[in-house]
Write a structure and sequence with these properties.
- The chain has helices at 2-11, 68-80, 132-136, 167-181, and strands at 23-31, 37-43, 54-55, 58-60, 88-92, 96-97, 103-111, 124-131, 142-148, 151-160, 163-165, 195-197.
- The protein has 206 residues and is α+β, with helices and mostly antiparallel strands.
- It has a single domain (2-197), classed as Nucleoside Triphosphate Pyrophosphohydrolase.
- Strands 1, 2, 3, 4, 5, 6, 7 and 8 form an eight-stranded mixed beta sheet that branches.
Length: 206
């Protein structure tokens, strides 16, 4: 499964945004278990933004970072004590725009199982894994309809134990599932099942 993922991501041509905005990067860690999992974090409840939200490790680009991959790896080391040397980077996904005006680049990497990861209590209150099978069988609870700049995005929402995976993280996850595993997920097409509508947002720079 992971070898096929590597091949598909190397052949993938991710979309780049034209907007000139501050940049950030995240790492989507695939844990190389016999039945692979994806690793997520949950933002600490005391934070002023995105508190309690599930996310991938990552953050804003800093001047000392050589590139955005370096940003993703540095932030992963700071947030969850993930050594950069233990990450096998498979490829990059399309840039996405966050609600706070950041242009976010996701990288996909394979990591060994059972590393001694530790959540930075200043930023996170949980590190957890979800079996890839949970997503490959599309066990979404519903679909969030998020209108951005007049366009509707149909974003799957998943629940695993007490964790809810939705929004920007789910948008990045959807591209991983579509491009890396050939799942028929298209955020521009209405899927069957329950829809939940959210307030319209405007992200295009003025």
């Amino acid at each position: 499964m992971l070898e096929k993922l590597r091949e598909r991501l190397q052949a993938h041509a991710p979309h780049r945004l034209r907007a000139d905005l501050p940049q950030a990067a995240v790492l989507i860690p695939v844990v190389a278990r016999p039945d692979p999992t994806l690793l997520f974090t949950r933002r600490a409840s005391h934070l002023s933004t995105h508190s309690g939200q599930v996310a991938f490790p990552g953050g804003k680009h800093e001047d000392g970072d050589s590139d955005l991959l370096a940003t993703a790896l540095r932030e992963s080391a700071e947030e969850i004590a993930l050594p950069s040397a233990r990450v096998e980077v498979l490829g990059r996904l399309s840039e996405v725009l966050s609600l706070h005006g950041l242009k976010v680049t996701p990288y996909v990497g394979v990591i060994p199982p059972d590393l001694p990861l530790v959540a930075d209590p200043g930023e996170l209150d949980a590190i957890f894994e979800v079996p890839l099978a949970h997503f490959l069988t599309d066990r979404r609870t519903h679909t969030d309809v998020i209108r951005v700049d007049g366009r509707d995005y149909f974003v799957p929402s998943y629940r695993h134990d007490e964790f809810v995976i939705w929004g920007l993280s789910s948008m990045m996850l959807s591209e991983l599932l579509a491009e890396g595993f050939g799942m028929p997920i298209d955020l521009s097409r209405r899927p069957p099942g329950e829809l939940r509508f959210h307030s319209a947002r405007r992200l295009a720079p003025s």
